[in-house]
Amino acid sequence: YTLSLARLILIRISPRLLGYLRIRVPPVGQGVAMKPPSAGFKNRILASLSSVEAERVAARLKPIDLPQRTPLINGDRRFAYFLESGVASFVVTVGDGHSVEVGIVGNEGVVGTSLLASQKSSVGHTFIQIEGNGYQMSAKALQEQFEEPGEFRRQVQAFMQGFMKIGRAHV
């Protein structure tokens, strides 16, 4: 309640007073760039990591804003994405040319697990359906982090297995 009241008060304060108080508020529509935290991830895979493992993985993450309809995977697979907020849609094109959504990913998982397989390209494409933000990791970094024993590997494997089970159940 206090935080909501404080936000209300801040919204009502004039820009001149904010400048006097040296409080910077980004203009509407311009987000503040995220920095990888050492703790406090919203993505469940990243949040499950020990502080040592989180620091190791965070060093390989690049913060990214994800506006609606941003393509994440479209044939080429160079990056994995850990969403902190928003929803990504995985879509495949069927024989008659129609597109079918076969899965969604939010902050519970990772987009781009096919990078860990020996496939050269993805069978579908993935894009942001509901805007948000998260972290981008190169394919090479994902493979290197996955090869390290630990919670990161276990969590990514568990997510992949769960995603495949859900997909099979709906086919």
Layout of strands and helices, then pairs:
Blueprint: H1 2-12, H2 15-20, H3 44-47, H4 51-58, E1 62-66, E2 71-74, E3 79-93, E4 99-105, E5 125-138, H5 139-147, H6 151-169
Antiparallel strand pairs: 1-5, 2-5, 3-4, 3-5
Q: What can you see in these coordinates?
A:
There is one protein chain. This protein has 171 residues and is an alpha+beta fold. The protein is built from six helices and five strands. Strands 1, 2, 3, 4 and 5 form a five-stranded antiparallel sheet that branches. Strand 3 and strand 4 form a beta hairpin. The relative contact order is 0.18. The N terminus is likely disordered.
Element-by-element helix/strand order: HHHHEEEEEHH
User: Which consecutive residue ranges, at least 5 long each, have pLDDT under 50?
Assistant: 1-38
Shape by Cα distribution: globular
Class based on secondary structure composition and strand pairing: alpha+beta
| Strand element count | 5
Distance between the termini: 45 Å
Q: Provide the gyration radius in Å.
A: 19 Å
The largest sheet is:
5 strands, antiparallel
Instruction: Please report which band the strand proportion falls in: under 5%, 5-15%, 15-25%, 25-35%, 35-45% or over 45%.
Output: 25-35%
Chain-averaged pLDDT: 79
Helical fraction = 25-40%
How large is the count of helical segments? Answer: 6
